[in-house]
Amino acid sequence: MAETSSPPTSQYFNLTYPLPYVAHVEINRPEKLNAFIEPMWLHLPHLFSHLSSSPSVRAIILSGAGPKAFTAGLDILAASTSGPLAQSSPAPPSTSTSQPSTQQPTYSLPTGTPYTTQTPPPPPTTPPPDPARLARHHLHQITTFQSSLTSLEKCSKPIIAVLHGYCYGLGIDLSLCADIRIAASDTIFAVKEVDIGIAADVGTLSRLGKVCGNESWVKDVCISARSFSAAEALRFGFVSRVVDAEKGGNEGSANNNKEATLQEALAWAEMVASKSPVAVQGTKELLNWSRGRSVEDGLRYTAVWNAAMVQTEDVRRATGAGVGGKKGKARFEKL
User: What does the pLDDT read at residue 272?
Assistant: First the structure.
């Protein structure tokens, strides 16, 4: 299958291909700790839709630019000016061209006695928006944001998230949509939404418990919004491994820790990209579909899936190479 389109471009995401069949997506807003603004989450599903359908991609690495953060989450300053976090719409500008009067206004008491005041009542403003219509608007924004992140989960290619530095709020949401999470030893995590006055609404509360399986710990970190370390994330199953550059004989700086973690991700992605794309992508599909469903349902779907997929030429090539490639390295056609 040939490429049918070029990848969508954005100044906020770097897309490179460091190895055959391996794509590297780098969140690129390091001056703001890779915090997300609206153009970023609107672009995300287009990017991962392209990677999902590209026959030249079999594994994807997701990381953050710079040494300080995977992502610090949502850019609160930007979000507070528009969208659900904005408290109110600004009043329309006045069209009057007259100069403000310096004369103190005169008002009447209920008895009719005139008096003056230094503090006149506020001028009339536009009526507040209808709550139901405002709620519909917020609902659309929130579900669009949710769908943006879910595009990673729906991507047919396995995604490994490289976590380092700050991984706050949206960083947790985003990484939960990846298939594999590995962290530098100095990564600091937090489900921060409670600290800005809201419940996390784009995935963490729905996914973290399914990933970790420890409801007490999940409620602990989500309700308290406290920070937790990479070691704690590993202990409770949020990440599958923690990388420490210092243990490898290198200086344990933030940048070295990130680079060492990225190298681990590259090695994993290279290994996965060398395998049958039919088998790898089918495995992701079956694992994702079976989550939240009964074993019986999962077995039935797997049987139907493999009734078709077992007919692939990849089975003959893989078995011909022997287990672990002892008879030579198998090569698989693009999907």
Answer: 97
Q: How far apart are CA 13 and CA 65, in angstroms?
A: 9
Averaged pLDDT of the chain: 86
pLDDT in tens, 222-238: 999 999 999 999 999 99
Core vs surface per residue 31-61: b (16+ CB within 10 A) or e: ebbbbbebebbebbbebbbbbbbbeebbbbb
What is the C-alpha separation between 259 and 246, in angstroms, rounded? 12
Section 188-206 average pLDDT: 94
Could you give the CA distance from residue 101 to residue 329 in angstroms, rounded to a whole number?
A: 86
The Cα 63–Cα 154 span in angstroms is 18
Q: Which residues contact 128 (CB under 8 A, 6 or more apart)?
A: 88
What stretch of H or E contains 210? helix 204-212
Would you tell me how many other CB atoms lie within 10 Å of the CB of residue 309? 18
Burial class of 154 by CB neighbour count within 10 A (0 to 12, 13 to 18, 19+): middle
What are φ and ψ of residue 183, in 5° steps? Answer: -130, 140
57 neighbors 51 (Cβ within 8 angstroms):
yes
Does position 191 have pLDDT exceeding 70, yes or no?
Answer: yes
The pLDDT tens digits of the residues spanning 157-172 come to 999 999 999 999 999 9
pTM above 0.70, yes or no: yes
Between helix 313-321 and helix 277-290 the angle, nearest 10°, is: 110
